[in-house]
Design goal:
This is Bifunctional chorismate mutase/prephenate dehydratase. Helices cover about 40% and strands about 25% of the residues. It is built from 12 helices and 15 strands.
């Protein structure tokens, strides 16, 4: 029935809302049943399953017929899943704080808002919290489409006894915010080094005489400006709202496609989904000509796609490097497993950092 009056349309919406609400509660009761079944059978108490979560989101997008976009439908389903998962067991997630950071946004995009998100002061603290079991998972930034890698995260991954079990791609839009109301009153700008780099051209053109100060995170910059009233911060619009700051300029990033990739770290390897990514770290035998080529050649020979290659000092000796590689596929895939075994035999150091579902939204 297509309504012809506003009253009819609202009545139909109310009726549909009642049905939708009933179905969501029915789904929640099934989540409670899953919890009870696992308790009775002694199954693993970790109710979050990255492979299953990705499957549900992809199915929701495949079923979608509009007019809502696939991304909007996936976000709605994510929040329903988050609320239902919280009925099974509250999920704790550590992130780079304080409140108002892009990392916190990445937490909610991946896990939904029904998680217990715990702010940490530094990336190494996130790794320690997850490793010790104080939190179930952690979210850390790893690279930006403009600013490149987050070196602290790569260095921690090389030594941590943890696995990457998911990824989040977050479009990032920077805003200049302050207690003052005019942009010409800004004399110093606080932000994370990556954000300053991502806005370099805009800052040079708009505030060439303002000094720049690096802080631990965008959220910390906004919090500092709010508490002291000194300078301006580059941070998210959510941070401006959280800390009561005036937005002096919006979308000041030099590239409108600016995107940050975040990793979900946990203590278990994710199951294959058919649309996975594997992250590796390895090093070549020092002083051996063509050693890096020998480590990369098996990927090409097997037709395995490399999506990322980075190098970082190994900290074992001067001019010795670790190489970080992302490939398409899961480490247990029949095509990939023998290739990894071959590289492991050739490398001086070799670790699978994780196999995990590719970002869905």
């Amino acid at each position: 029935m297509k309504p012809t009056t506003l009253a009819q349309a609202r009545a139909l919406i109310d009726a549909l809302d009642e049905k939708v609400q009933g179905l969501i509660n029915e789904r929640a009761r099934l989540a409670e049943a899953v919890r009870d079944i696992k308790a009775q059978t002694g199954a693993d108490g970790d109710h979050y399953r990255p492979a299953r979560e990705a499957e549900v989101l992809r199915l929701a997008m495949a079923r979608n017929t509009g007019p809502l976009s696939n991304e909007a439908m996936a976000r709605l389903m994510r929040e329903i899943m988050s609320a239902c998962l919280a009925l099974e067991s509250p999920l704790t997630v550590a992130y780079l704080g304080p409140e108002g950071t892009y990392t916190q946004e990445a937490v909610y995009k991946h896990f939904g808002h029904a998680v217990e998100a715990r702010a940490k002061r530094a990336i190494d603290e996130i790794f320690r919290d997850v490793d010790s079991g104080q939190t179930a998972y952690g979210v850390v930034p790893v690279e930006n489409s403009i600013g490149g890698i987050v070196s602290n995260t790569l260095d921690e991954l090389a030594t941590a006894n943890l696995s990457i079990c998911g990824e989040v791609l977050l479009p990032v839009h920077h805003h200049l915010m302050a207690k003052v109301e005019r942009i010409d009153q800004v004399k110093v700008i606080f932000s994370h080094a990556q954000s300053l780099a991502q806005c370099r051209h805009w800052l040079d053109a708009t505030l060439p005489n303002a000094s720049q100060a690096v802080v631990a995170s965008n959220g910390a910059a906004a919090q500092q400006v709010a508490e002291t009233g000194v300078g301006a911060a580059i941070a998210s619009k959510a941070a401006a709202e959280l800390y009561g700051l005036n937005v002096l300029a919006s979308n000041i990033e030099d590239d409108p496609s600016n995107t940050t990739r975040f990793l979900i770290i946990g203590r278990k390897l994710s199951d294959p989904t058919g649309r996975d990514k594997t992250s590796l770290v390895f090093s070549a035998h020092k002083g051996s000509p063509g050693a890096l080529f020998e480590l990369l050649a098996p990927f090409a020979a097997a037709g395995i796609n490399l999506t990322k290659l980075e190098s970082r000092p190994s900290r074992r000796a001067a001019w010795d490097y670790n190489f970080y590689v992302d490939i398409d596929g899961h480490c247990e895939d029949p095509l990939i497993k023998p290739v990894l075994d071959e590289i492991r035999q050739r490398a001086a150091l070799f670790r699978v950092l994780g196999s995990y579902p590719q970002a869905v939204i």
